[in-house]
Design goal:
heterotrimer; A alpha+beta (291); B alpha+beta (759); C alpha+beta (162); B: 759 residues; alpha+beta; Aldehyde Oxidoreductase, domain 4; 6-stranded mixed beta sheet; 25% strand; globular; C: 162 residues; Ubiquitin-like (UB roll); DNA polymerase, domain 1; 2 domains; 5-stranded mixed beta sheet; 5 helices; 5 strands; 34% helix
Chain lengths: 291, 759, 162
């Protein structure tokens, strides 16, 4: 009779328990920060049969950094990430992106895993994860598997997660020497908006300041965040001078295939994708030079 | 000219009396109360922007366990009543139809039915079971479509009121057309050395108060109703509820809650009569609270507009001629603020010849409501942008150009009356002399100035001042306190009685506990209700003097009053000056309690002007802009509590900046609002704004004992043009359409650079 | 009939509290409707206005995007828990002194958010304060006096800490 009253609230204490709950009920939804899920629930977009609150599972709420790199628990709140000094030093662009998700209040709830699983093309963290070669660690009835983050989202609102699976962590390799990243987005206000365009860049320099490798990703300009190898190619081999940054910008604008909507026209997004790519590359270059 | 009065409390900044409750969370707003046995109401809203209601079947909803009442438009009587509101009138038939559609839905989100149930979840789920059959019609989503020859007609019976355009006779979406004129405009333009003409557009914008509409109502077997609600006008709510729900106004009592912002948007009733009608059916109290999306979709924003302005000037800067054609969206029912817009458009300037026409246009969007100086910001955006262009053509300083043409005391206002003392020249001179005006700008920055005008309102007010035996006093009026008016009223009582402001308890009465008082709006509370408060305090003082005369056995006329003390006539034996406390202590033995009262009708108010300087920094690669410095100059007559006067100036400026830069109702082709939430309806956040500097200028209003002018509305008028003029200065581009959102700005910058590259 | 309500034990403003709620109910609703703590306001229910700001285990969160059962075993601080005894919190006092509220409906959220700011950063710059509070909408004040009140409270709290 009353659909809402039938919703269950589950608090699994382990990944295994969470997987069993998710596998047993196709309409159950993982509740991390709830900043997307509860809004969609209230708007009637999603009517789950159960909220599976994964925040009592230690593995999903932890940050570990070692010689290999970073393991970031998928449900770790953005604010916790922002306060992690070593994480900020090693991946300033990623932390920049994480800290742009919503307000201080939203930061207290929202997580990188949630941002990714919501699969919005405008998600701030996705581009920054892509340029940092992040892998998604997925747990499911058949055990764990990993998927490169650029393959995780397959369409707006859709991911590679199968029934019974949940994202438990992100794994990022430790950056090489003279490597750094940056993320920029365009929003109409100074805060509180969804990205109209986002751009992340990671560069690695050699001892002479020549760019040896680069990754560029742009967001909100296609159904999923785009890795733009052409833009990276424009940077590699250069000293990240104005001319090469300009070529990277042009490559990003060319790769963008945006739609026009209430947040911006297609033409605007294409132009600004280039501008932000150029600016983010310059910031990442500056950071890499100081390392 | 009388010598200026010296004040003891007026002009000071005491802590507001209602403040502690508000910083501790104890203050009760619309949604904060629970009544025993209360039900929860939920409104079913139209999924179409324009449709005929063929049938509504509520049986499944009524059969749902927990549902206690279901309401549709057929349950309510049709009324022909109106409520007077200054020179305008609220048509309660339209208000009732807007609250709950009868035959047609006229915008997406228009209410069609309401359910009261034991929980909000049950009410919502039951509402979803109501079967409404619609015949969907083409929506009219803007002025251009509304006035097209083949436009769908919203109201078949609607005919243009007023000075109709030639050939306009039959059914129409133009609800009214007004003209204002002076002199021979064609001849005057022929004399002009410079003529600038532009057409401007602005989208619908919302007041954006943070507290959604909320009420709780109880209607008994005897037909008597009590309503607790968040409103700017409890008496308006009372009369509207009675007419729409079909009750005797004598049987309706409205208790205003603390109000979480209104800006004009909490005058009209959207929920209260429904809550009463549901309560009457269920015989239990019914609480109704809007969600934010309902506030956006189904309350009253202000008009979207199209305004064409043409100004002519002599080489020396003298403005000689003006024409203006204003088209304002009324939303679903007639009654946009276009008339006020037309009257305010040229209020700042001495222009010998002008012609203004104003059109009120119905469209399939929510019915507009008042929004802070309704109509004036839209008109000022157009006129002040064109004035800026004239200054550029003449290579004249824009403040000098405005000063040269500024109206002053004795000049005839374009809308009719002769101005009394007004501070327009004083604010312009203050702006010219302020360091902001001459400070250097950084790269990519521009500076703009604009002025704005509002009439301000007077109307009906009542006040009661109650003296206690300890010499403290309470003051009660019928105006909900929306921005610190209780503090101002306490200051006035303190000033008149000479008692500390902390010993005055200001309060807001309900409709049974205060004399009839018009709404909190029109910047009238501190002025008109303030006048009533001062007179009620004077009434207390006169009664105290009479008590002193009785004690001293002297004539009342012989008793003096100084610094809060009754002074005996010289030579009176054994008589010493008596304080308020001393006299109050003896009340029981000198005639009983003392209550002062006053009620008045103020036909006029002191009109006011403001001037704003805006510095804008523009990112020419992304079109993004940011206000980096902002100064507000305003003639406030007399600042009773300067802290809250500054607050009005800053808050109005911030709302206007939002209107200029990012706020807009975005509709799809079906007339569905796409951004009905705070995420995408982008009001300014703290990091968007700099400190907003204020310069208070006091040119006393002779109609008020202290010289008070209304303050609240003027500051939203100049920002639209001040920001656009700053954008023009920064980019070289004249923007004629708001908001100046990054995509629009970048597109114009790219178009301009393409032209200059091509040339 | 099966029991559908969840029984939650939590700590609110330092006091142990128990309440019943639906599984899908928000903590905001539980605070306001179940526990009578109406100082926390609902302005949007989508996490975009900050009027429902509370501290959950000391962390600033929007109560509208927390499910009520999530409070199990946690510590919740609301505006009602900020003043101590008969003394206002310095932020509350400074909001009054600076006339940093008009209608006052956003005020509890601002004060809770500002407390979280000063807990994390006792000496914030104007810019840091503006960005920290960007999730709290105020439509009355233009933020000027709010920012001044927070900065003033910060400097006063710093002085009294010395």
């Amino acid at each position: 009779m009353n659909g809402m009253l039938a919703i269950r609230y589950e608090t699994p204490q382990s990944v295994g328990e969470a997987v069993r709950l998710m596998a047993a009920d196709p309409d159950a939804r993982v509740l991390a920060g709830g900043t997307d899920l509860l809004v969609q629930f209230r708007a009637g977009v999603r009517q789950p049969s159960a909220f599976v609150d994964v925040k009592r599972i230690p593995e999903l709420m932890s940050i570990t950094i070692d010689g290999q790199g970073l393991r970031l628990g998928a449900a770790t709140a953005a604010a916790v990430i922002g306060e992690h000094v070593e994480l900020r030093t090693l991946w300033p662009g990623l932390v920049e992106a994480v800290q742009l998700i919503g307000s201080t209040q939203i930061q207290g709830r929202g997580s990188v895993g949630g941002n990714l699983c919501n699969a919005s093309p405008a998600a701030d963290t996705t581009c920054a994860l892509i340029v940092n070669r992040a892998d998604c660690v997925i747990a499911g009835p058949g055990g764990e598997r990993t998927v490169p983050v650029e393959e995780f989202c397959i369409a707006p609102g859709r991911t590679v997660l199968q029934r019974g699976e949940l994202l438990i962590a992100l794994r990022l390799p430790r950056p090489a020497a003279r490597t750094s990243d940056a993320y920029l987005r365009l929003i109409p206000r100074s805060e509180m908006d969804i990205a109209v365009v986002g751009a992340a860049v990671s560069v690695t320099l050699d001892a002479n300041g020549v760019c040896r490798s680069a990754r560029v990703a742009i967001g909100a300009v296609a159904p999923t965040a785009l890795l733009v190898p052409e833009a990276a190619k424009a940077l590699v081999g250069s000293s990240l001078d104005a001319a090469s940054l300009k070529r990277a910008a042009e490559a990003a604008s060319t790769a963008a295939r945006p739609i026009g909507d209430k947040r911006g026209t297609a033409g605007y997004r294409r132009t600004v994708a280039g501008v932000l790519t150029r600016r983010a590359a310059a910031i990442a270059a500056g950071r890499a030079r100081r390392k | 000219m009388t010598t200026p009065r010296e004040f003891k409390y007026v002009g000071t900044r005491p802590i507001r009396h209602d403040g502690v409750d508000k910083v501790t969370g104890r203050a009760s707003y619309g949604a904060d109360v629970v009544w025993p046995g209360m039900l929860h109401g939920f409104v079913l809203r139209s999924p179409h922007a324009h449709a005929r209601i063929v049938s509504i079947d509520t049986r499944a909803a009524e059969a749902t366990p927990g549902v206690k009442a279901v309401l549709t438009g057929k349950d309510l009587p049709e009324t022909t009543a109106t409520i007077a509101l200054g020179e305008a009138a609220i048509d309660l038939r339209d208000v009732g139809d807007n609250m709950l559609a009868r035959t047609k839905v006229l915008y997406h989100g228009h209410a069609v039915a309401a359910v009261a149930a034991t929980t909000i979840d049950i009410a919502r789920e039951a509402a979803e079971k109501i079967q409404v059959v619609y015949e969907v019609l083409e929506p009219v989503t803007g002025i251009d479509r509304a006035i097209a020859a083949d436009a769908p007609i919203l109201h078949p019976a609607l005919r243009t009121k007023g000075a109709a355009s030639p050939g306009a006779a039959g059914p129409t979406n133009i609800a009214s057309r007004l003209e204002f004129k002076r002199g021979d405009v064609d001849a005057a333009f022929a004399e002009a050395d410079v003529v600038v003409e532009r057409e401007f557009r602005t989208p619908m914008v919302h007041q954006g108060y943070i507290e959604p509409h909320a009420c709780i109502a109880r209607c008994g077997e005897d037909g008597r109703a009590v309503v607790w609600c968040t409103t700017q006008g409890p008496f308006v709510v009372r009369d509207a509820c009675a007419a729409i729900a079909g009750l005797d106004p004598a049987h309706v009592k409205v208790i205003p809650s603390e109000i979480g912002g209104g800006f004009g948007g909490k005058i009209v009733v959207y929920l209260e009569p429904m809550a009463i009608a549901l309560s009457r059916k269920a015989q239990r109290p019914v609480k109704m609270v809007m969600g934010r999306d309902e506030v956006f979709r189904a309350t009253g924003p202000t008009s979207g507009s199209r305004v064409r302005v043409k100004l002519g000037a002599k080489r020396d800067g003298t403005l000689v001629a003006a024409t203006a054609s204003l088209w304002y969206e009324a939303g679903a029912y007639r009654g946009s603020p276009v008339g006020a817009g037309a009257m305010c458009a040229l209020a700042a300037y001495k222009i010998p010849s002008f012609f203004i026409e104003a059109h009120d246009v119905v469209v399939n969007k929510p019915k507009v409501a008042a929004y802070r100086a309704p109509g004036s910001p839209i008109a000022a955006f157009a006129v002040e942008s064109v004035v800026d262009e004239i200054a550029r053509e003449l290579k004249m300083d824009p403040i000098e150009l405005r000063l040269k043409n500024a109206n002053a005391e004795g000049d005839k206002a374009p809308y009719g009356p002769k101005y009394g003392p007004i501070g327009l020249k004083q604010i312009l001179e203050a702006a010219r002399n302020h360091p902001h005006w001459t400070s250097p700008l950084a790269a990519n920055q521009g500076r703009g100035i604009a002025v704005g005008f509002w009439f301000n309102a007077g109307m009906n007010s009542s006040a009661t001042v109650i003296l206690d035996t300890d010499g403290s006093a309470a003051v009660v009026t019928g105006n909900p306190d929306i921005g610190g008016t209780r503090a101002a009223q306490a200051i006035m009582v303190a000033e008149e009685l000479g008692i500390p402001v902390e010993r005055v308890r200001p309060g807001v009465g309900d409709t049974d506990g205060s004399g009839y008082t018009d709404l909190t709006g029109g910047s009238r509370v501190c002025y008109a209700t303030g006048m009533a408060v001062i007179r009620a305090a004077e009434d207390v003082r006169d009664q105290l003097k009479a008590r002193a005369a009785q004690i001293w056995n002297v004539a009342v006329d012989a008793v003096g009053w100084e610094n809060g003390r009754a002074i005996p006539p010289a030579g009176t034996e054994k008589a010493e000056a008596m304080t308020v406390a001393g006299l109050a202590a003896k009340m029981a033995h000198t005639g009983g309690p003392i209550v002062g009262r006053a009620s008045l009708y103020a036909p006029m108010a002191g009109p006011a002007f403001g001037a704003h300087i805006c510095d804008l920094e523009v990112d020419s690669e992304t079109g993004q802009s940011k206000v980096v410095r902002y100064t507000v100059f305003q003639d406030v007559g007399r600042a009773v509590h300067p802290g809250y006067v500054e607050g009005q100036m800053q808050g109005g400026a911030a709302q206007g900046i939002g209107w200029a830069l990012n706020e807009e109702y975005i509709y799809d082709a079906d007339g569905v609002m796409e951004n009905a939430g705070f995420l995408d309806y982008r009001m300014p956040v703290a990091s968007d704004l700099p400190m907003i500097d204020t310069v208070i200028i006091e040119v006393p209003n002779p109609l008020h004992p202290y010289g008070v002018r209304g303050v609240g509305e003027v500051p939203i008028v100049p920002p639209l043009a001040a920001v656009a003029n700053a954008m023009r200065d920064a980019t070289g581009i004249r923007f004629t359409e708001l908001p100046l959102s990054p995509p629009r700005v970048l597109e114009a910058i790219e178009a301009a650079s393409a032209v200059s590259v091509g040339a | 009939m099966t029991v559908t309500k969840l029984h939650i034990e939590t700590t609110i403003n330092g006091e142990p509290r128990e309440f019943l709620c639906d599984s899908h109910e928000t903590l905001l609703s539980a605070l306001r409707n179940g526990l009578g703590l109406t100082g926390t306001k609902e302005g949007c229910a989508t996490g975009d206005c900050g009027a429902c700001s509370i501290l959950l285990d000391g962390r600033l969160v929007p109560a509208c995007l927390v499910l009520a059962p999530e409070a199990q075993g946690r510590a919740v601080t609301t505006i009602e828990g900020l003043s101590s005894g008969d003394a206002l919190h310095p932020l509350q006092q400074k909001f009054l002194e600076h006339a940093a509220l008009q209608c006052g409906v956003c005020t509890p959220g601002f004060i809770v958010a500002a407390k979280a700011l000063l807990d994390a950063k006792p000496n914030p710059s104007e810019d840091e304060t503006r960005y920290w509070l960007a999730g709290n909408l105020c439509r009355c004040t233009g933020y000027d006096k709010i920012i001044r009140a927070v900065l003033d409270a910060a400097s006063e709290m710093k002085e009294s800490a010395i």
